[in-house]
Write a structure and sequence with these properties.
The protein has 304 residues and is α/β, with parallel strands linked by helices. Helix content is 43%, strand content 26%. It has helices spanning 3-16, 19-26, 30-44, 60-88, 100-117, 169-175, 223-231, 241-250, 279-298, and strands at 49-51, 56-58, 92-98, 121-127, 141-146, 153-161, 163-167, 188-192, 200-205, 208-213, 215-220, 236-240, 254-256, 265-272. The chain has a 5-stranded mixed sheet, covered by helices on one side. Helix 1 packs across helix 4 (60-88).
């Protein structure tokens, strides 16, 4: 019996929380599953699982082995899928995480187009305004609108995006039109806590970065909720243009302090650096880059 099979058996027992459930999932007998685990522990010279009549649990060394083994098996599976996709086309299930505010519009459109062009791919799209853990939560990749700082991830820039300060006409009428970033201090601002610096809004002046500390009546961890607060006349908002482009076109929000905007940031596709890039992931990222470029060229809504 090869070691890879024993590892898969061990992972299944842990995931299924028992030998009987694992045996059913694998289509093998409980006795055979128990035999595989015993052989694995004998080879390693350690006990991986604590066994009782009611349940199994990981030992301390078993917990460490589980994490590493799961990652090794994932890399093997990804490598196999990549090789197969190079010969049989783009296929398989793709798990993608994206910001809810962006996913409810532009990302949705792109993914549905991708599915039409790749009928052998299925997509599990999870819209979350938090940063998901790609490895622990089993995602193939995530779309992130941010400055990328996590060195454990590989990223490809899909498109640049512009960050703007905007407000409703009523807010401007009531509190005035800021002429310089410092004018925002003491005026009501809407805080999107997804941003790393939250209440310290970044601007640029003569190539130098400057920040302004702001406060306001509402703090939210959702770009969609922040946009809604701006539309309800609750204050000034700093947000990616992509989230408010239609409101600006319609006159519901007005952009200000454009000459102080920081350099363009990026929309990224990110995936774990240890995971082999499968054909379906590569095809999806290539498609997203082309899709955003096409929209910019055609003059449709785009992030900049």
């Amino acid at each position: 019996m090869d070691q890879i099979t024993r590892m898969r058996c061990f992972i299944q027992v842990v995931d299924s929380k028992g030998f009987s459930a694992a045996a059913r999932e694998m289509g093998r007998s409980k006795a055979l599953v128990s035999k595989y685990i015993g052989e694995l522990e004998d080879d390693l010279g350690v006990r991986l699982l604590n066994r009782t009549t009611r349940q199994v649990s990981l030992t301390e060394v078993g917990e460490a082995y589980y994490k590493e083994a799961a990652e090794i098996l994932q890399r093997i599976d990804d490598l196999q899928a990549s090789v197969q996709s190079s010969h049989h086309g783009v296929r398989g299930r793709l798990r993608v995480a994206a910001p809810r505010s962006m996913g409810d519009g532009m990302i949705n459109q792109a993914i549905m187009r991708f599915l039409l062009e790749n009928p052998d791919v299925t997509v599990d799209l999870r819209l979350e305004d938090r940063f998901v853990d790609l490895v622990d939560e089993g995602f193939d990749l995530a779309i992130r609108v941010t400055d990328l700082e996590d060195s454990s991830l590989i990223a490809r820039k899909i498109a640049p995006f512009r960050t703007v300060v905007c407000a409703s006409p009523k807010v401007i009428e009531t509190h005035g039109l800021p002429r310089v970033p410092a004018d925002l201090a003491g005026r009501p601002c809407i805080i999107d806590t997804n941003y790393r610096y939250k209440q310290n809004w970044a601007f640029a002046l003569d190539g130098q970065r400057l920040t302004v500390s702001v406060r306001g009546p509402v703090e939210v961890n959702s770009a969609s909720a922040a946009r809604e607060a701006a539309l309800c006349d609750l204050g000034y908002l700093r947000t990616p243009l992509i989230f408010v482009a239609q409101d600006i076109k319609a006159g519901r929000l007005q952009v200000m302090l454009e000459e102080f905007e920081p350099p363009l940031r990026g929309i990224y596709a990110v995936y774990p650096h240890r995971r082999h890039l499968t054909g379906k992931v590569r095809a999806f990222v290539d498609f997203m880059v082309a899709w955003f470029a096409e929209r910019k060229k055609s003059g449709a809504d785009c992030p900049v």
